[in-house]
Amino acid sequence: MIIVGLTGGIGSGKTTVAKQFKKLGVPVYIADVEAKNLMNKSKIIKRKLIQLFGDKAYINDTLNKPFIADIIFNDKNYLQKMNDIIHPRVAKHFKNWVLKQDAPYLIKEVAILFENGGHKSYDYIITVTAPKDLRIKRLLMRDNTTKEKIQAIMKNQWSDEEKIKHSHYVIENTALELTQKQIVNIHENILESV
Ligand code: ATP
């Protein structure tokens, strides 16, 4: 089974691109969404996050995101500990998901792919890019956030230049029609390689 990693900086348009691949019939696994689902559903993750952050980690069985975001924003050790709880379980969940798919290739969308050396587990990597200013503009429209918060996240991510060097395909996501054309080309190219 061919596994394609889809990545890109914050606000580049990974999910927008992933949805287009899905429309072409490609099974898509969005790691952030699945991680969030598991944080609310998995008993073991819940138990471990309560051990780490205390009872306030959940309100009515739902992850208390603002509470946790505040802690991890101020202390990176907590972010690491939280990732150590969640990542192995998402990896296992992904493996099980792969076994259930029947398609020439699969896509896994991951925000942080190169940064932790994970790129070796993919047959191909697609990086979505867009100018930083445009990404900030999109995120300010989508989320209740600030330019400073977005820039702080960008600082922790590899630059587009660095990602491009290690990618098999690059999608420049500015005008949607052009993005769509690049997606179709890449889709056909991967199918030919299978
Ligand atoms: P994150 O890093 O937060 O997960 P992402 O890389 O998955 O974000 P998206 O959520 O796909 O990015 O896109 C960010 C915002 O920009 C969304 O509101 C989306 O609708 C919008 N957007 C994405 N691509 C385009 C485009 N080509 N033209 C206009 N708006 C776009």
From TrEMBL:
SUPFAM superfamilies to which the protein is assigned, alphabetical: P-loop containing nucleoside triphosphate hydrolases
E.C. number: 2.7.1.24
Keyword terms, alphabetized: ATP-binding, Coenzyme A biosynthesis, Cytoplasm, Kinase, Nucleotide-binding, Transferase
A molecular function GO annotation: dephospho-CoA kinase activity
Pfam families named in the record: CoaE
Main subcellular location of this protein, as a coarse class: cytoplasm
Keyword field contains 4Fe-4S: no
Subcellular location: Cytoplasm
Residues where ATP binds: G11, S12, G13, K14, T15, T16
Domain of life, per lineage: Bacteria
Pathway where this protein functions: Cofactor biosynthesis; coenzyme A biosynthesis; CoA from (R)-pantothenate: step 5/5
Catalysed reactions, as listed in the record: 3'-dephospho-CoA + ATP = ADP + CoA + H(+)
Keyword Nucleus set for record: no
HAMAP family: Dephospho_CoA_kinase (MF_00376)
Protein family (similarity comment): Belongs to the CoaE family.
NCBIfam families in the cross-refs: dephospho-CoA kinase
Described function: Catalyzes the phosphorylation of the 3'-hydroxyl group of dephosphocoenzyme A to form coenzyme A.
Name of the featured protein: Dephospho-CoA kinase
Organism, as annotated: Flavivirga jejuensis
